[in-house]
Each structure stands twice: as structure tokens, then as C-alpha cells.
Design brief:
Elements: E1 7-12, H1 14-21, E2 26-29, H2 33-44, E3 48-54, H3 55-59, H4 63-71, E4 76-80, H5 83-90
Length: 91
């Protein structure tokens, strides 16, 4: 298996990406589903090993993009529990 030396990216809402970029991940603001196609194109032009996304945000991405992401081997897409979901679970 070939090892990918690419960067780690975080993609999504401004607040979510700011928190993760503090850990050194490259960040890309993508506020909603309408912006996702352009963000995906930008990612394809980069050397990306993995992409962190917020689960509630990712749930709203059109299925056609989700199918394309799942059919590709790289980068790895990692869903992180949403900030909103985390707050609800503590109530």
C-alpha cells in the first residue's frame, strides 16, 4: 500500500475549521452545500491525505458528492461529531 504524505485539511463552517486549524490543519471554509462543488475542486488540486468534516454539516452535502467521495481511495474523509450535537448530548 502506498503511503500518502499529503496534508490534513478541515472543511466546513467557519467556527468548526477555526478550532481544528489551531492544531495545524489546513482549513477551507465551505459554509454550505452550494459551495461544496467548488471546495471539492480546490481539494483535488492539493496534496491531501485526509479531510475532517463536521457530521451535521456533511449530512447536508448532496448525495452525488458523497458517492463520489466514497468511490475514491484518497483522500480519507473523517466525520467528527458536530459541535451542536455535542452540546445537545450534555443537556
Amino acid at each position: 500500500m502506498k503511503e500518502n504524505d499529503g496534508k490534513g485539511y478541515v472543511l466546513g463552517r467557519q467556527l468548526f475549521i477555526e478550532l481544528w486549524s489551531l492544531l495545524g490543519l489546513e482549513s477551507m471554509v465551505c459554509e454550505g452545500a452550494a459551495d461544496f462543488g467548488g471546495c471539492l475542486q480546490r481539494l483535488k488540486g492539493e496534496d491531501v491525505a485526509f479531510v475532517l468534516v463536521e457530521s451535521d454539516w456533511f449530512r447536508n452535502i448532496p448525495d452525488i458528492y458523497k458517492k463520489r467521495i466514497k468511490s475514491e481511495n484518497s483522500p480519507v474523509w473523517v466525520e467528527i461529531p458536530s459541535l451542536n450535537s455535542s452540546v445537545k448530548n450534555w443537556e
